[in-house]
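Hi everyone,

Forwarding the result from last night's run.
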Amino acid sequence: MKGIIEEYLLYLALERAVSEATLRAYEGDILQFNVYLRQEAVSPAEISSVDSIVIKSFLGRLSRDGYSARSIARKSAALKSFFNFCLKRGLIENDPTVGISTPKISRGLPVFAGKAVMERMMNLPPLNSVKGIRDRAVLELLYGTGIRLSEMVGCDIGHCDFENGVIRVLGKGDRERLLPLGGKAAESLKLYLQNRQGMPSLAGENRKEYMAFFADRLAAPLFAGRGGKRISKRTVQRIVHKYLRLVASLSQMSPHVLRHTFATHLLDAGADLRAVQELLGHKNLATTQIYTHLTSKRLREVYDQAHPRA
């Protein structure tokens, strides 16, 4: 079965072009299922011996072991995808996952911060050190564009077009999109680049010098860590947690909170839902509509507090 799993992972990476995170998650799920088969004395070499009873037994074990409904649903999806692949390749005659139901996931409302909170947080990173300047640029870019953590970490200097005010990002499924890059986000990012490794100014007479400097650095990471290597996701998570906890008491303190906040504040200000969908890089509008519940709830609270006959 090892060879089949390797072939399946190649299929996901090359033909389906799934993200690295999805690939690693599905690999872990399928390998976990393979271990379960060995434990239950089901021959891993005979994939045709797996039936719906084995699948249900595996999912039941996960539930008894304390896995969340979300985790079980993902593992179930991984198995469905894997056995569908096996069926198409003629490795099995019947798909054992057909008719297998997945647990329902109650989707909570996204955690977000208020406008005043964001204003206070953005003023916290000190501008008298390269590290503080970097931290402010990270925060401003996350909140100012709604960019995903993985997208920002993967950005190169060449992805930024300050002249036209856009940044090019590669999202889920290798879908490329352009995000507006202006205001405080662009200002902070320029300041960071200028203070990084003695880079020239972006303004005025120094523009030619700047362009010449970056001519051979377009593929360099937008945010660099030690030794000029690409900044890690963990470092960005620490930056956000460090400053967000100083200004707010939220159940989550992750970079994704700034993405939620970006979307919520746009909708609060009357932005079109489909425009926000495009900015966030959501494939389905339904994914973006979760934010409308936040704004509707806020409007209801304002109405209840302000209207004399509410």
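The chain has a mean pLDDT of 85.

Cheers,
N.
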